[in-house]
């Protein structure tokens, strides 16, 4: 096994007028690592900015049709169900199947990437006051609660729905390992308000490890020596930690496989 790590950096050239941000990527397999290096180099040379939409491109390239934007810090992890779509389309995009899919990805990532044995996940509602039992919206009753119940049937410790304002304002998020928000600003606004300087953007569900600073590319201060380098350092550290967690899990699973297939009769023969 080998790993490839690309540190986030900014470049400028005559061909590329605006700075490009290259996400930090780590991978367990040599062939896949080379694929990543070639892919990102091609994107850089072609002048394609690696924005939020490029995560979808990476997911497509690595045949990962199910992934999740997960904002991470020491204090808080927030996933987003609907991602980068207009607010007017959020309600139409939400389905029980989508929420369940995101909960499964989040649950698996918390176990595999962050070594949390039984993660507790809080699910936010869509409407103010979670719809007040249908008075100001019925998505909670018809979509979100059924998704939570089905997730529990799959041994996912999902709770909610919770009203976003009170949930973050009261500090209830500290009782959970992660939060699933229904739309982008519902989750990212409180996350960045609470952990802007140390937040990391991690794409859960990919076969590679991809992280970047949570604040984004910051084009307006590129080249001005004003950027805070600590978020980049946090992104690097998290990518390394996730890589090591995945490698440890892979080694553990391989050891279990070897034990399961070991011929106990051979041990008895040797003892005799």
With strands numbered from the N-terminus, the spatial order across the biggest sheet is: 3-10-9-4-5-8-6-7
Series of secondary-structure elements, N-terminal to C-terminal: EEEHHEEHHEHEHEHEEHH
Residue windows where pLDDT falls under 50 for at least 5 positions: 1-24
**What global shape is seen?**
globular
Number of helices: 9
The SS-based structural class is alpha/beta
Sheet-strand content, in percent, reads 15-25%
Give a written overview of the molecule.
By secondary structure, this protein is α/β, with parallel strands linked by helices. Helix content is about 45%, strand content about 15%. The strands form two sheets. An eight-stranded mixed sheet has the order 3-10-9-4-5-8-6-7. Strands 1-2 form a two-stranded antiparallel ribbon. Strand 1 (about 10) and strand 2 (about 20) form a beta hairpin. Helix 4 crosses helix 5 (about 140-155). The two termini are about 40 Å apart. Residues about 1-25 have low confidence and may be disordered.
Quick take:
The protein is an alpha/beta fold and 272 residues long. It has nine helices and ten strands.
List keywords for this structure.
alpha/beta; 8-stranded mixed sheet; two-stranded antiparallel ribbon; 9 helices; 15% strand; globular; disordered N terminus
């Amino acid at each position: 096994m080998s790993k490839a790590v690309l540190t986030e950096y900014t470049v400028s050239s005559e061909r590329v007028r605006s700075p490009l941000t290259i996400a930090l990527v780590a991978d367990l397999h040599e062939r896949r690592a080379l694929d990543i290096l070639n892919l990102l180099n091609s994107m850089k040379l072609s002048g394609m900015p690696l924005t939020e939409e490029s995560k979808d491109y990476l997911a497509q390239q690595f045949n990962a049709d199910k992934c999740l934007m997960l904002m991470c810090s020491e204090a808080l992890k927030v996933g987003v169900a609907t991602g980068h779509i207009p607010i007017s389309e959020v309600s139409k995009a939400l389905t029980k199947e989508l929420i369940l899919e995101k909960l499964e990805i989040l649950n698996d990532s918390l176990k595999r990437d962050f070594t949390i044995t039984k993660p507790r996940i809080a699910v936010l509602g869509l409407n103010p006051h979670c719809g007040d039992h249908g008075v100001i919206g019925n998505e909670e009753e018809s979509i979100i609660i059924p998704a939570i119940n089905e997730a529990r049937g799959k041994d996912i410790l999902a709770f909610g729905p919770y009203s976003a304002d009170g949930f973050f304002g009261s500090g209830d998020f500290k009782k959970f390992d992660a939060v699933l928000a229904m739309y982008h600003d519902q989750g990212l606004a409180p996350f960045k308000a609470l952990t802007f300087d140390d937040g990391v953007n991690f794409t859960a569900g990919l076969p590679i490890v991809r992280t970047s600073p949570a604040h984004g590319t910051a084009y307006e201060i590129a080249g001005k020596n004003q950027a805070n380098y600590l978020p980049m350092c946090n992104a690097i550290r998290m990518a390394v930690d996730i890589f090591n967690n995945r490698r440890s899990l892979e080694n553990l699973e391989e050891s279990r496989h070897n034990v399961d297939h070991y011929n106990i009769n051979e041990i008895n023969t040797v003892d005799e």
